[in-house]
Amino acid sequence: xxHKRIRKFNTKDTYPEQNLANDLCQAVVTEGGRTIWLRGQCxxxxxxxxxxxxxxxxEQTRKVMENIxxxxxxxxxxxxxxxxxxxxxxxxxxxxxxxKMIGKFTKDIHPVSTGLVVQALAxxxxxxxxxxxxVIPS
Length: 138
Hints:
This protein starts with a strand and ends with a strand. The chain has a single domain, classed as CATH 3.30.1330.40. The protein has three helices and six strands. The protein has a six-stranded mixed β-sheet with strand order 1-2-3-6-4-5. Helices cover 25% and strands 31% of the residues. By secondary structure, it is an alpha+beta fold. The chain is globular, with a radius of gyration of 15 Å. It has helices at 11-14, 57-74, 95-106, and strands at 4-10, 23-30, 34-38, 82-89, 112-117, 128-136. The model has no long low-confidence stretch (mean pLDDT 89). Helix 2 packs parallel to helix 3 (95-106).
């Protein structure tokens, strides 16, 4: 394979309620300064795809950012290599608490950011999803 795939999975295992069987992965590392493309991270455990218990937007965001950090580190990088995030939230009223939590993980990093308010995410209990890109310098 041309790129390193981290944490491969099939959607039939992680979303049994859906009639899908897509082969995906949590991150892809490419060469040439190494770019890490992260799948949109949700408030669930990476190892078993179980949702966290909390319905608090800040706590969900904490888990999402912990997942992003863990995946970047598993790819050989550090949070300072984070260059872009795209934040999807389901309720604009949660924006403040979500972005405050993101700020705790991105202090002094200065990634570019896009934020969107969406009608829903893949599971109704999810309030936030963040997709991220990191580049490990050569």
